[in-house]
Design goal:
Layout: H1 2-21, E1 28-34, E2 41-42, E3 48-49, H2 51-63, E4 66-72, H3 74-83, E5 88-92, E6 101-116, E7 134-137, H4 144-148, E8 154-157, H5 160-168, E9 174-178, H6 179-188, E10 200-212, H7 221-231, H8 236-242
Parallel strand pairs: 1-4, 1-5, 7-8, 7-9
Antiparallel strand pairs: 2-3, 5-10, 6-9, 6-10
Length: 253
């Protein structure tokens, strides 16, 4: 009897030691990011890159959390967070998601501009009312006043490249978006921002981590919040955008 009890004790102690040495399971969050450059995109070498991808790399190192990046159109990202098919999204703070997410941030700030066609110069908000069409990325949020203004004639587009192509062809009078996104896509099209009219600085928006309330990983919010606060810089995403391109360890499977 004593030998049996001793064997049981040794076995339990050995099992406890194994459990103690077993590393905790890594949490993986499925994060939606609008799939267009320079924020998150697959480059010519089939590598996932962009300023938001680089940011999530930093956040992963800081927290030990893995991020499964999903490149979806903006409107689908919003829907995914609402329905809980995404754990979160990294976008401008979006009021449509007030009831569906925990906002963690801010992460960084970005200037939002309205870039008019050549020959037009914008200096006041009221001038936007005189424009026939303003290209707006479908589902995106840029400023409360602009988003809710029903007097403005807005034409929804899928991404910056489409909106800027329409601007070049004079199919729209202006394009609204982040300075970073507009600048990058103009360069990709062989254009220069100085070749267009004087833009109106509409707002200075902050990017936030939108954590879905339907996610099964609510326990990581404190660690995520602490890391995001530690990494915060007003122009961090712009700095990451300006870095030379390098392969990212992440994928968008």
């Amino acid at each position: 009897m004593f030998k049996w009890l001793l064997l049981c004790f040794i076995f339990c102690a050995f099992s406890a030691q194994l459990v103690a040495k077993t590393p905790p399971q890594t949490t993986t969050l499925k994060v939606g990011v609008p799939g267009f450059a320079p924020f998150a995109y697959v480059n010519s070498e089939n590598e996932l890159t962009g300023s938001v991808v680089r940011y999530l790399d930093l956040l992963s190192v800081k927290t030990g959390i893995k991020f499964d990046i999903v490149l979806w159109p903006y409107a689908r990202v919003i829907s995914g967070v609402q329905r809980g098919t995404l754990d979160g999204a990294l976008i401008f703070r979006n009021a449509q998601l007030d009831d569906y997410v925990t906002f963690i941030g801010p992460i960084s700030k970005s200037k939002v501009i309205v870039l008019p066609q050549a020959g037009r110069n914008l200096s006041t908000y009221n001038q936007l009312l005189l424009l026939n069409h303003i290209a707006v990325i479908r589902g995106a949020s840029f400023s409360t006043a602009f988003d809710e203004d029903t007097q403005l004639r807005k034409l929804q587009v899928s991404d910056y490249a489409q909106g800027l192509n329409l601007l070049r062809l004079n199919r729209v009078n202006a394009v609204v978006g982040s300075l970073q996104g507009i600048e990058y896509n103009l360069i990709a099209l062989g254009e220069n921002i100085q070749d267009f009219g004087t833009p109106l600085v509409l707002a200075e928006n902050s990017n936030w981590f939108h954590f879905s309330k339907k996610s099964l990983h609510q326990n990581v919010i404190p660690d995520l919040t602490k890391a995001i606060e530690a990494l915060y810089q007003p122009d961090l995403l712009y700095k990451l955008y300006k870095l030379p391109e390098s392969p990212s360890p992440m994928n968008n499977d």
